[in-house]
Amino acid sequence: MIDCGEGAQMQLRKSKLKFTRLNHIFISHLHGDHCFGLMGLISTFGMLGRTATLYIHCHAELEHLLVPQLDFFCKGMSYKVVFQTFDPSKAEIIYDDRSLTIETIPLRHRIPTCGFLFSEKQTPAHIRRDMIDFYEIPLYEINRIKNGADYTLPDGKIVPNSKLTIPSAPPRRYAYCSDTIYLPRIISQIHGVDLLFHEATFTQSEQARAKETFHTTAAQAGEIARAAEVKQLLIGHFSARYENESILLQEASNIFPNTLLARETLKISIESVKP
What's the burial of 167, exposed, middle or buried (CB within 10 Å: 0-12/13-18/19+)? Predict the structure, then answer.
């Protein structure tokens, strides 16, 4: 989960997502609409009898704020809450496992803020079962072939890996950038991502207000997406002054046509995103 504002539990239930599958929460900054729901979520997990460790990736200040509350309200919980802190002013890998890395994207807002870049790792190639059977390749060779090795037949002939495998799908990348002033320096870090979420708080007519409050206009979000050559843009974090948010969508789409408007419980299949 990225950020955890008030109502996060309600949205999880509306989305029919299992609480037990949530093990890592990434907090971009310490404004209430991005973290006020965290304490209640932690408490609910305890009442549900959770046993798996919950990891909170956040600024050090959040740990200082929440630990006393946990000590007071959540004594004797059945699981651990582990804070893994980072410096929001630095671009660094804060999570890494066999399938995914997560890197911070330093942003510029009224308080220290960062976004997150999620990058899948390349998976091994897919075995061509027909060719494996044709050359009678033993099972113990399969892993080597999946990881790029050729195969040598008993007579010394080499069967190239490309004949034995089908390349796996390209790894996907997702960037989350909210809240921030218009910040072209992030373009190189997010270049070519499959999906970019970028805040679009105001229309371009409110550019002065956007600059004053360290937010971005929809047009500026479109400019970031176009310059970064992303495959798809999702805009959100809209000001409440816009009863009809289609004006923001139109403004961003005029610059970057492949733009979507964020809404509650929206699901996007990144596999369907094409250049």
Answer: exposed
The pTM score is: 0.90
Give the dihedral of Cα atoms 209, 213, 215, 216; nearest 10 deg: 20
Which of 74, 75, 109 shows the shortest CA–CA distance to 3? Answer: 109
Is 3 noted as a catalytic residue in this protein?
no
- pLDDT value, residue 258: 97
* Pairing between β-strand 259-261 and β-strand 158-159 as defined by DSSP bridges: unpaired
Q: Where are the beta strands (DSSP E) in 137-275?
A: 151-152, 158-159, 165-166, 173-177, 195-199, 233-236, 259-261
Measured in whole angstroms, how far is the alpha carbon of residue 43 from the centre of its chain? 24
CB 193 within 8 A of CB 175: yes
DSSP assigned state of 172: P
What does the pLDDT read at residue 262?
A: 96
Please tell me which residue in 33, 87, 130, 133 is annotated as part of the active site.
33
Strand ranges inside 165-248, DSSP E: 165-166, 173-177, 195-199, 233-236
